[in-house]
Design goal:
2 copies of one chain form a homodimer. Chain A has 410 residues and is of the alpha+beta class. Helix content of chain A is 36%, strand content 23%.
């Protein structure tokens, strides 16, 4: 059994018209009019595929294709339809529409599975409108309270709760996704690893751990002309040493480690004044929690050295951590077996970004399949994957689903 | 003959009440109501000292104490009464009020000099309200056109020309300061060099040369999680290397060299996005123009290395240079002879900041005397010099003035 690549491409193309940008990308922020239109289209397609749609009180959409065993827990497939501003056509939408294509393929074949198959569209995965990211899946799995989620406000002050009602997707708490046998999410890689390896698909080991630190360097601002170099306590010179140190530490921690200084603020930020204060973010990522801790410890040690050498004070506040989430070993084995059955080259890799599957792993065995991203680009209008790679990924999703849901007849 | 230290302190104290800040500093922006009050007070004191005040069309105030030789060119003494926001009590005001104290001392002694002695208060030295700095002295010496100066606007859009008229200090082009035999300016050092050397006064070699460059680093912004370290083109990492290089180059160029990165802008400046672009200022200072040029050349060479190593593009635009201005050797010798006569320890040093004397050196032999700054602090409320050091500086100004103006009798 193989998915219909042309039909999947057509669905992706049709969906990409909703919120289409002049540059060929998509802006479809969570709970916007565009998101409503995308949801309405998905609901119509699900109905046409013979499924009934239920919506929970976070706007998560769930549709079920029954199995032969009424008592069996479902296999759940999905992702999200919201995008960042000027994002791409594949991030999120691929996982939802490939799940739909799996069901359409089963329907075409008259296939019966023992377990029901569910398709889910999670609300506000991106966090581009309402922070933090993955609000819908996090709320459904108990990470966030309803009051917290409903109170999240966008830049204009409109809340998640109000916008959910406004677009008509505030459903029933009783309709929240229930227990599942497994959760599978197909997604574009959003990075260059598969492309570099020359393989169309990847089996995802898990979601990398992330920790965020705020570093503050306090020196002494002074006149750029009257203060000799030897007497300065220049916060920017000290910060430059630490910026280089973060990358050096991550390099020493192996190829799966990441360190990024993304936010960087200099005060007073005047051409002829020595910076008195610099504050910056450090984003460390690693698949192992212990190694994340070690990176932060090493940063502290480097900061002490720099502070002593430069005559500045440095404080480091580790203010947020998302623990590493390895996916279920059996689900990963099942995905890998499906890839091998299809004879595709593949690679195992960690996801450096968060996905709804991270929170689903809280409550059921979960796994992800990555599709090769052209140029490793994502969250931009240039985001792309070839139809062949997309079909490859969708066929892996189908094959893994058949194994997990247990094909009875077709 | 010695100045009256108590009287000079009292004058400084009285002047510091105009624009006094709660923190003990002064905010007296050029052509503000506070500047007008300071000018009115100075005019009254000058009149009380028997001088008549003339005001030119840039608001520069000039008062003359006649000499015995009607044909002799004057010796001019002065500085400025404007301050930065929340500046100190001594920057500028010291040079004007010490000049007044010199005249008061001569009056007390019934002294007659061959040359006239002039006291000048230059308009808008700081550039804190109207950019650039030293507008009044620059305009009087032909560096700036009248149209340029009058059109300078503050943050609220009020122009130099309008504000000059508003406070009643728009005078006559015929009253611009004429040729002079010499110009002397007493000023606080604004840096830590004299304090470190343990001497109360300094003989200033000249005004250091300054050159400003704008550096732009262009990499590729990407997701902090999905882009492996080895594949990044991180503009901030590259910029950090160059920030450290600027200081290293200046260190190699000797103790009078300075390099400062003061403005530093990161884009998009988001915690989990690799910086795609960084732009920053470089302020190089050196007493020799050729060495300034060499610093910029060396920065270019470093930038090429960093660009190659980091996979980024780096452009450097050298957009402004203020040439080094050595003061007149004979005037410096005269000041040094005056210091030696007074038996004071002193040091020769370059001024790392600009002063009105830089532009006066364009049209007459000029020199400066520095007074030790406590902690090297300036342009802040904590700016301070002891009464003893201030008296020492004012006595050097008096002794040098007597040599240049030629004491006839007392």
């Amino acid at each position: 059994m193989r998915i219909n690549s042309a039909r999947l491409q057509a669905s992706l193309e049709t969906m990409a018209q909703i919120g289409r940008t002049p540059g060929g990308g998509v802006t479809r922020l969570a709970l916007s009019d565009e998101d409503k239109a995308a949801r309405d289209l998905l609901a119509r397609w699900l109905a046409e595929a013979g499924l009934t749609v239920q919506v929970d009180d976070f706007g998560n959409m769930l549709a079920r294709r029954p199995g032969s065993d009424p008592a069996a827990a479902p296999v759940r497939l999905g992702s999200h339809l919201d995008t960042v501003r000027q994002g791409g056509r594949f991030d999120g939408a691929l996982g939802v529409l490939a799940a739909l294509e799996v069901v359409r393929t089963l329907n075409d074949a008259g296939a019966v599975t023992r377990r029901p198959i569910e398709i889910v569209n999670w609300t506000n995965e991106e966090g581009a409108r309402f922070e933090p990211a993955m609000l819908g899946s996090g709320a459904a799995t108990g990470r966030f309270t309803k009051a917290f989620v409903y109170g999240r406000a966008d830049r204009e002050g409109r809340t998640f709760g109000d916008e959910l009602v406004r677009i008509g997707y505030c459903g029933d708490p009783a309709q929240r996704p229930g227990p599942a046998h497994a959760y599978l999410e197909l997604h574009i890689e959003q990075g260059p690893v598969l492309e570099e390896a020359g393989v169309p698909v990847g089996v995802v080991e898990g979601i990398i751990g992330i920790t965020w630190c705020q570093v503050t360097v306090e020196g002494q601002s002074a006149h750029a002309g009257t203060m000799p170099l030897a007497r300065r306590r220049d916060a920017l010179q000290a910060a430059a040493h630490l910026v280089l140190a973060t990358r050096e530490l991550a390099r020493q921690a192996g190829p799966d480690a990441r360190a990024t200084v993304g936010r960087f603020i200099v005060e007073p930020n005047v051409t002829n004044v020595i910076p008195g204060r610099v504050s910056f973010s450090v984003d460390f990522r690693h698949p192992e929690a212990a190694l994340l801790d070690r990176l932060v410890e090493q940063l502290h040690a480097r900061a002490e050295q720099v502070a002593a050498a430069e005559g500045v004070r440095i404080s480091i506040e580790r203010f947020w951590t998302s623990e590493p989430t390895p996916f279920d070993p059996a689900v990963k084995e099942t995905i890998e077996a499906a890839v091998r059955e299809l004879g595709m080259p593949f690679q195992r890799l960690w996801s450096g970004a968060g996905h709804d599957a991270k929170y689903m792993q809280d409550c059921c065995p979960s796994g992800m399949i990555f599709v090769r991203s052209q140029g490793g680009l994502s969250h931009c209008e240039q985001e792309a994957s070839t139809p062949e790679d997309i079909a490859a990924g969708a066929n892996v999703l189908l094959a893994a689903t058949l194994r997990l849901a247990e094909l009875v007849s077709h």
